[in-house]
Design goal:
single chain, elongated, alpha+beta, 6-stranded mixed beta sheet, 202 residues
């Protein structure tokens, strides 16, 4: 009997349900995006050797010096390696655990990237790319270049999109990499990757 009121009510209910579906779809998409870009790009467990500032001398650590006054002058800390001890045996033991889906060993250091007059500080990591691709899907995140070309390049690197933009480099460009210890080397940009975040990995 009241067609106009019925039509308005139907449109109101339809609009409300459409907005509800839109918001649920948006929240689901955001959750899937964050899971793909953040959670799947970081390891569940990271095993590393922590940096300590222990300044105890050899005499202070020995059992014979207990209860005695020990004085060491001009003590200097020695350069100790931060690598894991017996990493190979540790990896083999973890591979036997059925709960471990994959392992990707990594060696990283702080470096300076130089391209012409531009010099930027950053990190460089050496990894087993086959294992890294199995865990984090690096192959599908390549934005420029080819993953297989990187595997064939001896001095190649895969660079993050953020760093590539700052250095203004493209596939095939060579850049100078120097470590804080003074070691230098020239590497070739074989591929550029990105995880799709607000500020992509550098």
């Amino acid at each position: 009997s009241k067609k106009k009121q019925t039509a308005v009510a139907m449109l109101g209910v339809t609009f409300g349900i459409a907005v509800f579906i839109l918001m649920i779809s948006f929240m689901t998409g955001v959750n899937l995006f964050l899971e793909d870009s953040m959670l799947t790009s970081t390891p569940h467990v990271r095993i590393y050797r922590d940096v300590t500032a222990e300044r105890l001398s050899v005499t202070e650590r020995s059992a014979d010096s207990r209860g005695q006054h020990v004085q060491v002058l001009h003590q200097r800390p020695f350069a100790a390696s931060l690598n894991l001890r017996d990493a190979g045996a540790m990896i083999k033991k973890l591979e036997q655990d059925k709960r471990v889906l994959g392992i990707s060993p990594q060696v990283s250091t702080q470096v300076f990237y130089s391209m012409g007059a531009v010099q930027l500080g950053g990190m460089m990591a050496g990894v087993d790319m086959i294992a890294e691709d199995k865990l984090f899907g690096i192959r599908k995140r390549i934005k420029s270049g080819k993953f297989d070309d990187f595997l064939k390049t001896r001095d190649g690197v895969i660079m993050g999109m953020g760093l590539a933009k700052k250095l203004n480099v493209q596939i095939g460009d060579r850049i100078t990499v120097s470590t804080p210890q003074g070691n230098k080397g020239i590497v070739k940009v074989a591929a550029i990757f990105g995880f799709g975040g607000y500020r992509d990995w550098e």
